[in-house]
TrEMBL record, chains A, B, C, D, E, F:
<keyword id="KW-0028">Amino-acid biosynthesis</keyword>
<dbReference type="InterPro" id="IPR001048">
    <property type="entry name" value="Asp/Glu/Uridylate_kinase"/>
</dbReference>
<keyword id="KW-0808">Transferase</keyword>
<feature type="binding site">
    <location>
        <position position="180"/>
    </location>
    <ligand>
        <name>substrate</name>
    </ligand>
</feature>
<feature type="domain" description="Aspartate/glutamate/uridylate kinase">
    <location>
        <begin position="23"/>
        <end position="262"/>
    </location>
</feature>
<feature type="site" description="Transition state stabilizer">
    <location>
        <position position="243"/>
    </location>
</feature>
<dbReference type="InterPro" id="IPR001057">
    <property type="entry name" value="Glu/AcGlu_kinase"/>
</dbReference>
<dbReference type="GO" id="GO:0005524">
    <property type="term" value="F:ATP binding"/>
</dbReference>
<comment type="function">
    <text>Catalyzes the ATP-dependent phosphorylation of N-acetyl-L-glutamate.</text>
</comment>
<dbReference type="GO" id="GO:0005737">
    <property type="term" value="C:cytoplasm"/>
</dbReference>
<feature type="site" description="Transition state stabilizer">
    <location>
        <position position="28"/>
    </location>
</feature>
<comment type="similarity">
    <text>Belongs to the acetylglutamate kinase family. ArgB subfamily.</text>
</comment>
<keyword id="KW-0547">Nucleotide-binding</keyword>
<comment type="pathway">
    <text>Amino-acid biosynthesis; L-arginine biosynthesis; N(2)-acetyl-L-ornithine from L-glutamate: step 2/4.</text>
</comment>
<dbReference type="InterPro" id="IPR041727">
    <property type="entry name" value="NAGK-C"/>
</dbReference>
<dbReference type="InterPro" id="IPR037528">
    <property type="entry name" value="ArgB"/>
</dbReference>
<feature type="binding site">
    <location>
        <position position="85"/>
    </location>
    <ligand>
        <name>substrate</name>
    </ligand>
</feature>
C-alpha cells in the first residue's frame, strides 16, 4: 500500500468520525466473534479505536455455548420449551457465573489493548430491571426474563469518565431474583435507554440474504415497512426474527440506524462505522 | 426503650458522623457474616446507613467456602502447599466464576436495601495489578497472586457519584493473566490506595484474645510496636497473623485506624463506627 | 441498653435519613425550648445532627419574653390591640436589638456544638419583604408587618455551602422601614419559598388535643379538610389557630409535611425526623 | 459641567477600576460618617458603586456613641480603665444588641441603594475568634477582647456570590463567651485574613497632620519606617496611634496600601479609590 | 472641578453601571471616529471602560475610505450601481486585506489601553453566513452580500473569557466565497443574534434632525411607529435610512434600545451609556 | 484495497491516536503546500482529522510569495540585507494586509471541511510580543522583529472550546508597533509556550539529506548533539539552518518531538502523525 493510499483510508474515515463524534453505539457481541481468538482481538480493537476517536461504545454480550458447557460439566440437564431453556435455580446460578467470567474476560482484553473497560451486569445499580417471561404456551420456564426498565445512570457515568462498559444480560426482578435475558433484547433496550445513535448486532451469517443459500444475495438495507413482506416471503425467519425485532424496537425508540453484521469478518464493526464499505444489512426507518 | 434513650443513641452517633463525614472506610467482608442470611442483611444495612450519612464504604469480599464447594461439584481436586491452594488454570476459572456470582449477590442486596451498589473485580479498568506469588519454599502454586499496584480511579469515580463499590479479590497480571489474591491483603492495599480513614476486617472470632480460650480476655487495642512481643508470647498466631499484617501495612500507608471485628455480632460495623461500644480489636499506630 | 438495641435505633433511622437526604426542613424555634438551657442544648444538637446526615435545617426564631423584659427595663410601656403589641418606633428598635442578640446566641451555640451557624435577619439581602399589618379593626398598630415576599437566594447560598441559617423574624418594607413579624408566619413563608420538605413548629403544649385537659387525647394527625370542623368543635382555638394556619399555607405552597411539636420534650425534633415515635400533631394535606 | 468634563471624570476612573478589579477593600466605618444621615448615604453609595465595578468592599463598623447612649438609658454605669470601658456581662449584652441593630441598619441601607448587603458578627461561623484582653496594668476589664484568629470562609463565600458583608466587631472566645473588640483592629485583621488589597479607616480628622492645629499641614503619605520618629516628634499620638498600628499590621500581613481618610468629606472613599484626588494620609510600606 | 463634583459624576454613573451589568452592547464603529486619532483613542477608551465595569462591548467596524484609497493605489477602478460598489474578485481581495488590517489596528489599540481585544472576521468559525445581494434592478454587483445567519458561538466564548471582539463585516457564502457586507447591517444582525441589550451606531452627524440644516432641531427619540411619517416628511432620507432600518430590525429581534450617535463628539459612547446626557437619537420601540 | 487492508490502516493509527490524545501539535505551514490547491486541501483535511480524533493542531503560516507580489503591484521596492527584507512602514502595512487575507483564507477552508477555524494574529490579545531585530551587521532593517514573549491564553481558550487557531506571524512591540517575524521562529516559540507535544515544519525539500543531490540519502533522525558536526560537514546549511534552530529551541523548551517534513507530499502531516511511515527528518533530543 502506498503512503497516499494509507492517507486515503484515514481521510475516508474523517466524515464518519465527525458524524459519530460524542455519539453512543451499542454493540451486541456474541457468536463466533466471541469464541475465535483472532476475531475477539479484532472486535476489541475496534471498540478501543472507536473510544479513542470520541465515540462511546457500549457492549452487551451473550454466552450460550459456554453456559451449555458448564451445565454439562456440572451434570445439570437442560430442558427446552419452544427453543427457550427452562432456567431453574441451579441453572440460573451457572448462567450468572459463566456470564460473569466471560464479562470480565472481555473487560480484561479491552484493558490490555489500551482501553479502559468496566464489566457490569444488570444487577449493578439496578441497571436492568426484569420481569418473568413465560414460554410459548404461557408455560413457566423459570428465571427467563424480559426487560421492563433500564436505569442507565451508571452506564452514563462510566461513559462520561472515559470507560467502555461491558454488560452481561442478567436482569434483576422487583422481587430481587435474577433473570436470564436474551442479549439481543438487552442490546436493543440499552440503545433506546441511552439514546444511542447506532445499534450493531453481530451474527454468524452475512446479514439478511434474499436467498439463504446465496451469499451474493445480501440485502444491504431493509426498511421497517418492508419487514412484513419479507416475513411472508420467508426471507426473514428463524433466529433472524428476534434480531430484526430488536432493531425495529430501537428505531422506534429513537436510535438512528441499526445493523446486523457478519461477526465472522474481522473488523466488521470498524468497516461499518468508518468506511463506505457495505457490510451486513442495515435495518432502516 | 424510652424516646429519650432513642434520642440518646442518635446523639451519641453525632460526633462519629461528624468525624467520618466524607471519609472512606474499607471493609473486608468474609466468613460467617457472608453465609448467615441475617448477618448478611445486617452488614449490608450498615453499609447503606454509612453511605447515607456521608461516609464512603468500599467492600472487598472473600469467598473461600463457596469456591471449595463448586470445585468439589466439578470434581476438581485441590492441592494445598503451606496452607495456600495450588491454583491451576481450571481452578482459577472456578474462582473467578464463584467470586463473580457472590459479588453480584452482595451488590443486589445493597440495591434492595436502598443503596446503589456496583460490583467490580480487579480486572475492571485494571483496578488491581497482581504478580505471581510463590509458595512457602518458592514453589510454583499457580495463579495465586499478590497486589503490586492499585489503580483507584474507577473506584473513586463511582464513590463520588454515590455508589457503593463491592470488589472481588481477583487481580490481573502484566501478562493479562488472572490471579487469585487473599482478600485481606486486597482490602489493606485498597485502603492505602484510596487514602481511606479506616480499615475494618470482619472475622469469625471476638478479636485478639490474650488467652485464646477466654473471650473476656479481649485486647481492645494493640499498638504496632507491641506486635512482635505478642507474637513471641503466642497471643498472635495462625490466621490472625496476615490480618494484623494488613492492618500494619494500611497504617504505614496512612490509614488512620484499623479494626479486626467479630463478624458474628450483628451490626458490628455500625457499633464500631457510630458508638462508644468496644467491639473487637483496634490495631493502632 | 444492649449493643443490639443501640444498633436498632440507628437502623430505625436509616429510612428517614434516606427520605430526607438533601431536603430542607424549616423549624420555628420559640417558647420554653428557647429559655431552658438544657432544652436549648438539645434543640441545637438536633439541628447539627440533621445537617451532618445531609438534611438542611433552617431556623426561624421568636423572642417574645426577652423583648418584654428589655422594654420593661427601658421603661417603654406596651399597648396591646387584639393580642398584638402596638409597635411604635422606640419599641421596634428594642425588638430588633433583642432579636439580634438572641439570633447570634443561637448561632454561637450551633458553632460550639460543631455546626456552622450563620445568623440572619429579614433585612439581609432583602430576605423578607414586609408590609404594614393593621390590627383587628383596621387599627394602626405601628411596625407590625406581614410577609409579602421572600428572596431566598442568600439562604440557599449559605445552605449550599454547608451553613445552618438562623433567621430573625424582622422584615423590611418597600419604604425601608423595619417590621416585626410573627415568627410562625415567617417560618411558613420561608418553608414555601425554599420549597422545604418539612415545617416543624415548636410549641409549649403536647400538640393538638381533642380534650384540652387530657394530654392522652393528642391528635397525631389532622387533615386540612377537617380543620373547619375542629374549629367548630372548639378543639382548635386561641394561639394554636395561627400555627395551624401557617401549616396549611405551607402545605398549599408545596411543603410535604408540617408538624406542631412539644418543644418541652428534649430532642422532639430528632424523634420526629428520625424515628417512628409519635410526637405532637402532624397537619397533613 | 460640560459633557466632555463628565467623560473626563469617568476616563480618569478607568485605571483605578482596572487596578482594583476583583480586589478586596476593607473599610473601617465609624465616627461622624456613621451618625450624619447625608454622610451615611454617601458612604453606602460608594460601597455599592465599588461592588458594581468589580471591587469587593468589606465593612467593619463601630458603634461607640450609640452603645454609651443605651447603657445610660438602662442605667448601667461604665467604668473606664486606661481609656478602655470595663465590660461586665450586662454591658456586653448591651454592646451586642446595639452593634447588631446598627449592623442591620447599614445592611438595609445598602439594599435600598441597590446593593446586596449581608450583616454578620464575629460569631457567625466563628468568623472572629477572640481572647480576653487585659487593661493597662494587667487589670481584668471584663469582656474586652483581641482578635486571635479570623475564619474568613463565610465572608469569602458571600463576597463570591456578590454580597457586601458588614461586620460587627464582636468576637467569640474558645469558651463560647462574647468579646467586644476595637473595630480598627478587627478591620486590620480582616484585611490581612482576606488578603485584601486596601484597608481604609474612616476618621473624624483630616488625616495625620504635621501640626495638629493646621489642616493644611496634612501628611499625604507616611512610611512605616518613619513612624517612630513621628511618634517622638509628637505628630502621632492619642487615638491616631492604634489606627496607625492597624495599618502597619495590615501592611506586614500583605495588604498593599492602607489609608486614614476624613470621613467627614462626602464620598471620601470614592475619591480615594477612583480619582487622583489626595484625601487623608496613606500609610505606606 | 471640585472633588464633590467629581464624586457626583461617578455617582451619576452608578445606576447605569447597575442597569447594564453583564449586558452586551454592540457598537457600529465607522466614519470620522475611525480616522481621527484623538476620536479613535476616545472610542477605544470607552470600550475598555465599559468592559471593566462589567459590560460586554462588541465592535463591528467599517472601512470605506481606506478601501477606496487602496483600490486607487492598485489602479483598480470601481463602478457603482445605485450607490453600491460593484465588487469583482480583485476588488473583494482588496476589501478583505484593508478591513483585516484596520481590524487588527483597532484590536491593537484596545490592548494598548489595557483591554484584551480579539480581531475577527465573519469567516472565523463561520461567524457570518452571507448570500449574494443583487443591485437595485436585480443587477449582479459581484461579491456584495447580505447576512443570512449569525453563528455567535465564537463571539460568546471570547466575551465570556473577558475579551473584546472586533468584527470585520466580511461574510462567507455557502459556496465558500467571501462577501462584503454593509457594516450597519452586520451590527444589527449581531445585536439580534447576541441578544444584546443595546445597539449603538456611530455616524458623522448629530443624529436625526427635524431640519437638516439646524443642529438644534435634533430629535432625541423617535418611535418605530413614527418612522413612516418621518420618511414621508423627508426628515429621514439618504444614508440615514439603512441605519434606522438596522435599528428597527434589532428592536424587532429583542434588542432593548438602539442609538444613532454623533461619532464626532469625543466619548459619545460613554456619555450615552453612563450619563443622563442626551446625545444623538434613540430609536425606540 | 481489500476491506481488511482498510481496517489495517485504521488499526495502525490506533496507537498514535492514543498517544497524541489531548496533545497540542504546532504546524508551520508555508511554501509549496500553501500555493498548490490540491496540497492546501490535503493539509487542511489533515488538520481537521487531527482535531476530530482529539489532537489540538495550531497552525502558524507564512506568506512570502504573496507579499512580494503585492509589493510589486503597489510599486514598493524591497531592499534586502543579509537575506532579510528591509521592512519600512509602507512595506509593513502590505505585510499585514497580505498575511491577514491569507490567514482568513486558511480559516475559511478549514470551516468548509467541517472544522472550526479561528484566524488570529500576534496582535490579538497581545498573543505575540516582539522586539526589533537588527540585520546582520547591527543594521536597522525596519519592522523586522523577533519573539520576546508569547501570551498563550487566547489560543488556549479557543483550543479548549474546540476551535483550530491559525496564526499570522505578526508581533506587537511594547511601543505598539507591528513587527514581521519569521514564521518558523513563531512556530517554535508557540510550541514552547503551549507546551506542545510536537512541532512540525513543512518545507519544500525531502528533509535533511546527507547528500543534497540524492533524495535517497534522507536522514530520518538527527540528534541535537550531532548538529554541530552536520554543520561542519556542510550537510546542514542555508535555509535549513533556522528551521533546525527552531526545532532545537522547541526541544529545549520541553516539546517532545520536532519534524521537518516535505510539504510537497500530500497528507505528509497525516502520515507523520498517524502511521509508521517515515516522512522527512525528525530532530530529536
Amino acid at each position: 500500500m502506498t503512503p497516499l493510499e494509507k492517507a486515503g483510508v484515514l481521510v475516508e474515515a474523517l466524515p464518519y468520525i465527525k458524524k459519530f463524534y460524542g455519539k453512543t453505539v451499542v454493540i451486541k457481541y456474541g457468536g463466533h466473534a466471541m469464541i475465535n481468538d483472532q476475531l475477539k482481538q479484532a472486535v476489541v480493537t475496534d471498540l478501543v479505536l472507536m473510544k479513542f476517536v470520541g465515540i462511546h461504545p457500549v457492549v452487551v454480550h451473550g454466552g450460550g455455548p459456554e453456559i451449555t458447557g458448564m451445565l454439562k460439566r456440572l451434570g445439570i440437564e437442560s430442558q427446552f420449551v419452544g427453543g427457550l431453556r427452562v432456567t431453574d435455580s441451579p441453572t440460573m446460578e451457572v448462567v450468572e457465573m459463566v456470564l460473569g467470567k466471560l464479562n470480565k474476560e472481555i473487560t480484561s482484553l479491552i484493558n490490555r489493548l489500551g482501553g479502559r473497560g468496566v464489566g457490569l451486569s444488570g444487577k449493578d445499580a439496578n441497571l436492568i430491571i426484569a420481569a418473568k417471561k413465560l414460554g410459548g404456551e404461557q408455560q413457566d420456564i423459570g428465571f427467563v426474563g424480559e426487560v421492563t426498565e433500564i436505569n442507565p445512570g451508571l452506564v452514563e457515568t462510566v461513559l462520561k469518565e472515559g470507560y467502555i462498559p461491558i454488560i452481561s444480560p442478567v436482569g434483576v426482578g422487583r422481587d430481587g431474583e435474577s433473570y436470564n435475558i436474551n442479549a439481543d433484547y438487552v442490546a436493543g433496550a440499552m440503545a433506546k435507554a441511552l439514546k444511542a445513535d447506532k445499534l450493531i448486532i453481530l451474527t454468524d451469517v452475512e446479514g439478511i440474504l434474499e436467498n439463504r443459500h446465496d451469499p451474493s444475495s445480501l440485502l444491504s438495507t431493509i426498511k421497517v415497512q418492508d419487514i412484513p413482506a419479507l416475513v411472508d416471503r420467508g426471507v426473514l425467519q428463524g433466529g433472524m426474527l428476534p434480531k430484526v425485532d430488536c432493531c425495529v424496537e430501537a428505531i422506534r425508540g429513537g436510535v438512528n440506524s441499526t445493523h446486523i453484521l457478519d461477526g465472522r469478518v474481522p473488523h466488521s464493526i470498524l468497516l461499518e462505522v468508518f468506511t463506505d464499505q457495505g457490510i451486513g444489512t442495515m435495518v432502516a426507518p
